[in-house]
Each structure stands twice: as C-alpha cells, then as structure tokens.
Amino acid sequence: MDGNKPIGALIEALPFIRRFRGKTIVVKYGGNAMINGELKAAVIEDVILLSAVGIRTVLVHGGGPEIEAMLKALGKESRFVRGLRYTDEETMEVVQMVLCGKVNKDIAALIQTAGGKALGLCGIDGALLKARRLRYTGEDGAAEDLGLVGDIESVDTAILEAVLAGGAIPVISSVALGIGEAAGRSLNVNADTAAARIAAAMGAEKLILMTDVEGILRDVRDNESLIRTISLAELTALIREGIINKGMIPKAECCTLALEGGVKDAHIIDGRRPHALLMELFTDEGIGTMIMRS
C-alpha cells in the first residue's frame, strides 16, 4: 500500500477546508445513497467529517422508496401529478409517519452512532418550514389538485442557527406546517425544493443535490459528456435548448431557485459513488456538475 496516497489526499483537501470552514453547506440526501448500506455509511462519514472540520452542514433528506413501500403494504396505490406525489389525508399520514418518525430518526441515529452529533427535525418543529398548498394550472386553464402538497413560503433559520451553534448537524425531513387555507395542517414538500429554499434562506455557500446520475450530461447516452462547471445563464440556455430534459429539469430548477436566492454555487453529484461529497468538495476536479451563480 502506498502510504503517500492518503497524505496527498489530505494536502489536496487542505485549501478547500480552509475556504469552506465556517461556511454553510446544505446537502439534499436521497436516491440510492439512502438505500445501499455501504453508500449510506459513506455519506454519514462524509457529513461528520465536514462538520468536524468546521463546515456548517445541514442535511435535508427524502424518503420516496420508504413511503412507497409503506403505501404498498397498506394496499394504497400511489398517484403522481407533474412528478409530485398526490397526497390525500391517508397518504399524508403515511408520509409524516415514515419521513418524520422513521427515516429522520434513523439518519440522526446513524450520525450519532458514527461519532457525530445530530438533531432530527421536520418542518413542523418550531414552524421551521411554513408552506401554502401548491396548485398547478393545466394547459386547459383548470387547476390541478395535488392534495396536501406544499410550496414553502418561509424558513425559520434561527432554529437551524441554534442547532449549528450547538455543534450538531440538523437533519431535516420535508414536511411543512401549512398556512393560509391549510393552516395547522401538515403538508408534503418536495425535498429538493426544501433544500433549495433552506440554502437560500441561510445564505449558504453551496447546495449539493445527491442523485442517481453523474450530473448534467450534454448527451444522456454518453457518461463522458458530463458538464463539470456551468453558469446559471448557461444552465437556463441548456433547458431552453432541450439538452437538459425529463427528470433533470426539476433538479436544475431547484439549483436555479437556490442560486437566484443568493447561494453561491449549486452541485448535482452522483450519490452512487462512495464519499461523493468529499470528492466533490475537496478535490480539484470534483465528480459532478457545479452550477455557478455568475
């Protein structure tokens, strides 16, 4: 074994650690990295290391597969509208139970078992996330009902600042407290959007979306066509030209939301690669796509 390799990696990482120390990074944790045991352990180690070197790390998680499994066990069929889960009363109960009661606490437990410190929260806790019911207008002008699905209107950053000041990693599930016509109700919120809104509200240095793809590809059939860096203006152009399409469009829109809200950089990385977070943040080349505000 070459003993110089880990030393070289530390030396390469040092300027990045100095640059990001004291800065806030919001990570959206989802996809295969939440299911595969080896990948899950690597993500937890990465998050703990980021926190240990002084990078203020906020972890926002999804849980679609776990929700789907519970709904199937209950004999309930899922329905999606524009890629968002239609959420009736029964589905909302399952979403809240699975995301807030199980997945959130499992992640917090993993961090603490691995030597970190975490506080599991959902958007309802302390009214961290407030949202109104989300409605789309179809091509015929009619409103499309999504049920108890929310669009975040405000983020109480004071709660997150207090957790970070206490040396803990906030672990957030994307269930929000309803306002307006949904006052006092629980609303299901897209986790990517929640991460983008939180990153913008906190003035984060970076938003990182962990996905099951390499990043943004110029040609989806060619993994070698990965775009490593791109400006927000170029990102908008790629969407308009149709190069960014299908499932990548919502990811790109979340990055746009964060960058327009003041976040410096947004990243889309492949969470199927062990220690993807560290490779993206602490190496010169990175592994995914970085979108820059300017």
Structural write-up:
By secondary structure, the protein is of the alpha/beta class. It has one domain: Acetylglutamate kinase-like (Carbamate kinase, 3-Layer(aba) Sandwich), CATH 3.40.1160. Helices cover 40% and strands 25% of the residues. The chain is built from 9 helices and 14 strands. The strands form 3 sheets. An 8-stranded mixed sheet has the order 5-8-2-1-11-13-14-12, with helices on both faces. A 4-stranded mixed sheet has the order 7-6-9-10, covered by helices on one side. α7 (232-241) runs antiparallel to α8. The longest helix has 25 residues, at 89-113. It is globular.
Write the layout of secondary structure elements.
Blueprint: H1 4-20, E1 24-29, H2 37-52, E2 56-61, H3 64-73, E3 80-81, E4 84-85, H4 89-113, E5 118-122, E6 129-137, E7 143-155, H5 157-165, E8 169-173, E9 175-178, E10 186-188, H6 191-201, E11 206-211, E12 229-231, H7 232-241, H8 248-260, E13 265-270, H9 276-282, E14 289-292
Helix pairs in contact: 3-4, 6-8, 7-8
At a glance:
By secondary structure, the chain is an alpha/beta fold. It has a single domain (19-292), classed as Acetylglutamate kinase-like (Carbamate kinase, 3-Layer(aba) Sandwich).
CATH superfamily: Acetylglutamate kinase-like
- What is the alpha-carbon Rg in Å? 19 Å
| Order of neighbouring strands in the sheet with most strands | 5-8-2-1-11-13-14-12
Low-confidence residue ranges: none
